[in-house]
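Researcher: I'd like a candidate sequence for this fold, 448 residues long. If you have to choose between options at a position, lean toward the conservative one.
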């Protein structure tokens, strides 16, 4: 087992990793930008190193600084969290060249899954169902027309290098196609420096359902069930739950088994998420995330596993400690992402947090790095906390969510807490009847 791990991240996820390390008796090194000198992850770590000025490209994305921080402190491994360098294959390679363990999959697996066309091709070859679409990138409008015609309208044009919901455009018919393609290419070029696009069947009313996997890189892998992340705004998740209100145990076992088998064939190491759109009882692969996800606590709640500790164990060379039969699901869990944003306009609301109070009690977990007097810097993501509730049934979770949101106090900045309180009044939410477009339509109806 490692003696010292460097956590290459900030905010709630840095704290989450730190907690896992502390329970395992591993020393922690925090890194931080000058804007984060007073951050909670710095206060709680055994050691800390300042790695640069506020902009992420100069600090949390600064590979040379992070490698130096490992060398100065003698950290043997790096946990990347999510975002920042967590899906950067080159970073994983550079660490390896310095004899530092990257806690995550091989650079090769990261690279394959980071290219959306390659990822789809790989998934298909491994027997995972994919969205019907073009075989690879489409170079020009003539090729796009041919592809769209054989797939059938409506289609969606997506960036090969895509991420964060950018560079996606829907075309409902051949007349739309030319403009949609040009816009998607321009957006992709601007956002990712790579204008290549591909075409997929556009699904009208899917749910977003993803399967959590865990592998040891030695040919063993299990699935840990699904999460339903259909409540999205601009393709960004705000609410995640396990199990999905739409799946039964048989469907879960079937798709889970297929995905776990694929991960065994890849000799996948660490945690990962296979994302699907789900419509009319069919699953369609859209992408794989080769890292820990923001929403991992809902899976922890229903399996009783600590996913970060499992990541660390397999990274240290241990075999998977469990078989599929050992994994028992129990109850239901829901996560709400609390952002420092105006709940109606979603404009960021950084600044000083005068006081905070977190809810507690049976079945309530809060992952957050906030404290009273903390100043939320304007440079990073607006996620300031995650409220996770769990209970025997979904209905129990809904009651618990109402109760704990009413206890949650963040004074001094605006948060998305009122949005969740309003969502809990909606019958569709209470009944679990929602798809990936539900939230956008709700916001259109309810924006003053
Ligand atoms: P990104 O990497 O940018 O997040 P994804 O491929 O994961 O892109 O897609 C993000 C979201 O976009 C999905 O959760 C879904 O809401 C929507 N989406 C993607 N592909 C399709 C599709 N073929 N049909 C309908 N919606 C889609």
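Model: Candidate sequence:
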């Amino acid at each position: 087992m490692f003696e010292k791990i460097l956590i290459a991240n900030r905010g709630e996820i840095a704290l989450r990793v730190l907690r896992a390390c502390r329970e395992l008796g591993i020393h922690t090194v925090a890194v931080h930008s000058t804007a984060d000198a007073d951050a909670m992850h710095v206060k709680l770590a055994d050691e800390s190193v300042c790695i640069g000025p506020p902009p992420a490209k100069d600090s949390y994305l600064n590979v040379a600084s992070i490698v130096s921080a490992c060398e100065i402190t003698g950290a043997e491994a790096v946990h990347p969290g999510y975002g920042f360098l967590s899906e950067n294959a080159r970073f994983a390679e550079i660490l390896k060249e310095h004899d530092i363990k990257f806690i995550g999959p091989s650079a090769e697996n990261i690279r394959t899954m980071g290219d959306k066309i390659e990822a789809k091709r790989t998934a298909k070859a491994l027997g995972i169902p994919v969205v019907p679409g073009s075989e690879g990138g489409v170079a020009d409008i003539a090729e796009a027309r041919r592809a769209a015609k054989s797939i059938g309208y409506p289609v969606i044009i997506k960036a090969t290098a895509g991420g964060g919901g950018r560079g996606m455009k829907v075309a409902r018919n051949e007349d739309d196609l030319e403009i949609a393609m040009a816009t998607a290419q321009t957006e992709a070029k601007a956002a990712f420096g790579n204008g290549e696009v591909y075409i997929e069947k556009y699904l009208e009313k899917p749910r977003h359902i993803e399967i959590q996997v865990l592998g040891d890189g030695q040919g063993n892998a299990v699935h840990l069930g699904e999460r339903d992340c259909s409540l999205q705004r601009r393709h960004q998740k705000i609410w995640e739950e396990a199990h999905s209100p739409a799946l039964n145990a048989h469907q879960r076992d079937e798709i889970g088994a297929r995905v776990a088998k694929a991960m065994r064939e890849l000799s996948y190491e660490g945690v990962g998420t296979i994302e699907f759109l789900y419509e009319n009882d069919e699953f369609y692969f859209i992408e794989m995330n080769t890292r820990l996800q923001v929403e991992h606590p809902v899976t922890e709640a229903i399996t009783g596993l600590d996913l970060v500790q499992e990541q660390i164990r397999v990274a240290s060379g241990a075999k998977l400690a469990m078989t599929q039969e050992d994994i028992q699901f129990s109850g239901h869990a829901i996560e709400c992402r609390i952002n420092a944003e105006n709940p109606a306009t979603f404009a960021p609301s950084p600044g000083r947090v005068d006081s905070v109070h977190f809810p507690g009690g049976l079945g309530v977990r809060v992952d957050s790095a906030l404290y009273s007097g903390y100043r939320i810097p304007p440079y990073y993501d607006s996620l300031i906390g995650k409220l996770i509730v769990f209970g025997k049934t979904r209905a129990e979770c809904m009651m618990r969510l109402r109760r704990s949101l009413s206890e949650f106090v963040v004074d001094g900045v605006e948060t998305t807490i009122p949005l969740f309180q309003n969502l809990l009044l909606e019958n569709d939410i209470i009944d679990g009847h929602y798809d990936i477009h539900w939230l956008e339509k709700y916001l259109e109806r309810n924006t003053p």
